[in-house]
Amino acid sequence: MPDSHAQCRVEPGGSASYNRPVAGFEIRLTLRDEAATAELGARIAAALAPGHVIALSGELGAGKTALARAILRGLGVDGHVPSPTFTLVQAYETPGLTLHHFDFYRIERASELSELGLDDALEGGAVLIEWPERGMPDYLTADALKITLEPTGETTREARISGPERWRDAFGGAMP
Ligand SMILES: Nc1ncnc2c1ncn2[C@@H]1O[C@H](COP(=O)(O)OP(=O)(O)OP(=O)(O)O)[C@@H](O)[C@H]1O
Ligand SMILES: [Mg+2]
């Protein structure tokens, strides 16, 4: 087990799902360095399936693309993984799953999403979305795994993770 396992920590009491009208979970992880972010990505990759939506939030440079790369590495992608900042979407055929990596930062109209093939991408596989607050349709929000990264130091990130109950096990006891 790589050292980075020890660097992901669930805050005490952070797994509560009370006060939430819809069944779900919410946890906070402290990511001490990029290795910890890579480990988080590997966990997500192991649980990812067609139809899943991962929404990655956080300020510029928070680490959304770094986490997306880690997820893709976990899915077996070993080539270059560019940021979709300018292309808006990058598609990957991984051994078990088709994955589309979107960046909505530059989206200006909802119609651009269908032009980019968001619905088709979801029908055929899973999607990662950076900057979901810039245009992710409401109908995707309830079922999405939502991750917000907040820089707390040069290499440290606070990850707030919430989503439907079925995702809870992906972050369970494996991240002490
Ligand atoms: N623990 C960490 N997790 C993720 N990235 C980290 C970490 N520590 C340092 N970094 C650095 O932070 C930067 C994150 O950049 P990244 O492109 O992933 O941000 P982003 O959130 O996608 O930004 P943007 O909104 O511009 O797309 C990288 O330079 C990365 O090396
Ligand atoms: Mg990015």
CATH class division: Alpha Beta
Distance between the termini: 13 Å
Question: What is Rg?
Answer: 15 Å
CATH architecture: 3-Layer(aba) Sandwich
How many β-strands, per DSSP?
8
Total DSSP helices: 5
What CATH calls the topology is: Rossmann fold
- Spatially, the strands of the biggest sheet line up as 1-2-8-7-3-6-5-4
Structural class: alpha/beta
Question: How many structurally independent domains?
Answer: 1
The CATH superfamily is known as P-loop containing nucleotide triphosphate hydrolases
Shape: globular
Mean pLDDT: 88
Strand portion: 25-35%
Largest sheet: 8 strands, mixed
- Helix-residue proportion: 10-25%
- The oligomerization state is single chain
* H/E topology pattern: EEHEHEEHHEHEE
Q: Name the ligand types.
A: adenosine-5'-triphosphate, magnesium ion
Which regions contain 5 or more consecutive residues with pLDDT less than 50? 1-21
Report on this structure.
The structure is a single chain. The chain is α/β, with parallel strands linked by helices and 176 residues long. It has a single domain (27-172), classed as P-loop containing nucleotide triphosphate hydrolases (Rossmann fold, 3-Layer(aba) Sandwich). 24% of the residues lie in helices and 27% in strands. It is built from five helices and eight strands, in the order ββαβαββααβαββ. It has an eight-stranded mixed sheet with strand order 1-2-8-7-3-6-5-4, sandwiched between helices. Strand 7 (145-151) and strand 8 form a beta hairpin. Helix 1 (34-47) packs across helix 2. The longest helix is centred in the N-terminal third of the chain and has 14 residues, at 34-47. It is globular. The two termini are 13 Å apart. Residues 1-21 have low confidence and may be disordered. The chain binds adenosine-5'-triphosphate and magnesium ion. Adenosine-5'-triphosphate is lined by residues 31, 33-34, 37, 58, 60-66, 83, 85, 130, 155, 157.
